[in-house]
Please model this.
Amino acid sequence: MNIFKRILGKRKKNISQINFNNEEWVQFKLSGDIRDNISRLCHIMNQPSDLKSREFSLAGGSRKAATLFISTVANEDMIQEHILKPLIMESTAAIGKGRISFEEIKDSMISADKVKVVYTFDEIVMGIMSGETLLTIQGYDKGLLIDTKGYQGRTVGEPATEPSVKGPQEAFVEILRINIGLIRRRLLDPNLCIEMYKMGRRAKADYIIVYIKGIANGSLVDEIKNRLSKLDVDGQATTAQMVRMIVDRPNSIFPLIQVTERPDKVVSALSEGRVAILMNGNPEAVIAPTTFPILMQSSDDYYENWIVASVIRMARLVGVFITALLPALYISVTAFHPDMIPLNLVLSITDSRTGVPFPAFVEALLMVFTLELLQEAGIRLPRIVGQTVSIVGGLVIGQAAVQAGIVSPIMVIVISITAVSSFTVPDYSLGLALRIARIPFIMLAVTLGIFGVAMGMIAGLIYIASLKSFGLCYLEPISTLYPADWKDSLLRAPMRSMRKRPEEMQPEDPIRMSTGKGGQENE
Amino acid sequence: MNKPKLNSMQMMTLISAGTLGVDILTVPRRMVESSGQDAWISILLGGLLTLIFGTLAYILAVQYPDKDFPEILISIGGKFFGRLMLLIVAIYVLLYLGLSIKIFVQALLVFLLDKTPVFILMLLMNLVAGYAVVKGLETIGRVVDILFPLTIFTIFFVMLLALPQADPIRLKPILYNNDKNVLKSIIPAAQRFTGVGLILYYFKHTNKSKSSFLWFLAGICIPVFSYTALTLITIMVFGIKETAILTYPPLTLIKAIRFPISFLERLESFAAVFWIGIVFNAAVLFYYSSLRNITVFFSIPEKYEIYAIWAHLPLLMMIGQAESNVWEVLDGTPIIRTVQFLIVLGMIPLLAGYTFLKNRRRRPGESKKIRDLPFYYT
Model:
């Protein structure tokens, strides 16, 4: 019995005894000796090669001081211009006026815009690691932490994965400050709330929760904050990775959050009552909650006439079905129900399959697998080599495989249409999920024909209908629960008819647009 | 009380979807057999009767807004009689569910997969229906919401395409020496709409509003209208003699459709695929009802419901395997129809009347509660 208990019983959690919350550093306080402070900081941070310190004299040598910063994340020009230069010059000018006080140095001699008095090493270590500079002065058991953040980053560029024909051509970058600016510039609303938190036990990462107070539902905001605050991890590499840990169904292949690099998408989501999460060092924002119809929408839908946008959305939806089902339907029709299609087409398919050594489903799996390899290779390889891979892949998939008699030309057409359709899905993660969904459908088709595919579709529908993103059903608003939200789901109604925000988000302020007749949209 | 999982509009989709089950494949034949060319009149009159009995079921549900049918039975009949009534209902629902799936699978064998074992088809259908029940009522509501418009569209699309072959002369003479048969067929026709009884299972979970009753009535009218129209078209295309010998007249009707451009060789096979959705909707709604019957009967706690769900599988498979011949299955259903008749046209009206009178005798303060209920009370 004990053996069974040991195997089946719950194992004790191996909780790490190491405390990474910097609590032990709280007990270390700054001393009046700058040398001692420098050596202690070096010891805590394990003598990093990029930790720079510069000792200098104040007021003509009457008092020693030192600056400490990490050169790779701090702006050295700023340190020179706003700390060292004014300190040395002003303190020299103050010779003869008596002893210079700590407050005088803080208020009159440093021209940097953000200065904080610090006493303990926990604050100092975190500040220095994020690019701030410590000024420690001989004789004072407190120091100044001055904001000199200035790490290098790329400038705002075009969205790489979410291009738009007519929309803004700006994408988020790795620097959180710039990303906040990109949102603020588009949303001049004093109720825009940007709350900053730190995440991670070891590596502390800054992340922000963005929402519009008075629109976003308070309980949704609290729920997201609550779930994020419960995360106890070393420190996440990406925002999406972090948020995927707090979604309702972490094992679902369907994306339960929306990851975007477009600030205009974030602004649009915020004005609908959703919440965005951005993390320093990540060129993406995570929007929650999200639904299947939202993931099927593109920015361009709102820059086009509503009829055009609706037709394009429907085409995209057809694309979804083709991506997931076309190979399965082809197999089921050719293997089980050839009588369903016209005789000429049957003859044509049979003729094209003459000499192919594999059954249709092996052929399909082979092609799907090759296509996946090519798509993966195309992403991983540098652009110049990527083109070569595309050409080789095209030849292998298209001509060579057919000429060698491994696959039939009609299968090449089926797989090509499937591949093209998969690119119409606006959300990359959703596209990946649909690509994976192809395989079980192929299996069902080969065992139970079109009945298997139909049952697979129903099972898939049940699964998707049971998914929730932060409490919101994944299929909203495609049900009779919120008929008012149908205006912006699979089709897009004219903008002037969308006077209310989506009901499914339960916004605190439901009205988005005045009901007046003036200012009608030119649609 | 828990937060409602369904809204009042979903009452329409659930009732319609539950009624438009496997019967749709056989209704024209069965009604033509009993009332000839006036079968459509019998269906319409049966529909009217269903409206009355549906209203009675609704009244019963309204009296117990926080209870579903099995709980109502226990509440009214007590532990012994309540459980006895529940046992009858539970057996009926289980048999109806199992045989419905069986009949549908037989149709699939004819039109789609002639070599696949019935066992496999039934197993898959039951597994997927069980999976939906595992996911809960909210998910069932959403799935039915999405599949239901597709099923209605399929039915009306098929009828529209068949119109060119329809000859109205085949409906004549209307009610000529046939009025007795028409009247006799009203109750059999009403038995085709017993899905309305599902209101007793789902009302508890709906968001009650003033429009609830109207949505419920709409839920009855849609299948009545669909069955009437389908029977009319079938008679107009095939005539009564041919309709009476067709096993699945609607599927044969699709076969008769002539496309100007033949991009599909066998449209009936495609239609059979769409019919999967119709039958699945009804199956999943009855599956959930059966689950409720069993969990209340055996007082199974909510956390063990999952075992009750999967315990259905062997039972349903046994019911499906019991009779292998399609005609035997089809002829066997009158037994079920009789039980159906006793429950829907007997037990429910009696219980509704009993509860209504019981509540009227209450003190004035208590009866005030009833006055707040939907408009048919005033």
Observations:
- Residues 255 and 267 of chain B are 6 Å apart (CA to CA).
- Residues 8-377 of chain B form a domain with the Amino acid/polyamine transporter I fold (CATH 1.20.1740.10).
- The mean pLDDT of chain B is 82.
- Chain B is about 75% helix and 0% strand.
